[in-house]
């Protein structure tokens, strides 16, 4: 898995370095394509901790994860709802929102990290066709 940040170059993380009790396990329905893209986005909710976004274009969703204390936690991304620890960005039907996700920094100057989400339109005779439009989502603060 490779995590990207708007402020740094891509960082490769060796997942084998973590023991079975470290971090969270994300599960999702088949063909949800969870984690095809993921990025560190900065502090999206103002709690002082770095948050991240996970694309799940098979669910037509990008999920901002703002949860702490995730040791030995299993998170089902097929049933999670927006709230204190998660923010779901659902796209219009057929766009496969979440194919590409990223952090943009604080582009609206409210002091909180913002994100960008790209949909992809399927099918296309030549393969995946990116919509060529990005959608910016600002923090709710």
| First-last Cα distance | 30 Å
Profile the largest sheet: 6 strands, mixed
* Count of individual helical segments: 0
Strand order of the largest sheet: 2-1-4-5-6-8
- Reading the helices and strands in chain order gives EEEEEEEEEEEEE
What percentage of the residues does DSSP assign to strands (E)? 35-45%
> Considering DSSP H and I runs of 4 or more, what fraction of the residues is helical?
under 10%
Overall geometry comes to globular
The total beta strand count reads 13
How would you describe this protein?
This protein has 141 residues and is mainly β. The protein has one domain. Helix content is 0%, strand content 40%. It is built from no helices and 13 strands. A six-stranded mixed β-sheet has the order 2-1-4-5-6-8, with no helix packed on it. Strands 9-10-13 form a three-stranded antiparallel β-sheet, with no helix packed on it. A two-stranded parallel ribbon has the order 3-7. Strand 9 and strand 10 form a beta hairpin. It is globular, with a radius of gyration of 15 Å. The N and C termini lie far apart (30 Å). The mean pLDDT is 75.
Features:
about 140 residues, mainly beta, 6-stranded mixed sheet, 3-stranded antiparallel sheet, 13 strands, about 0% helix, globular
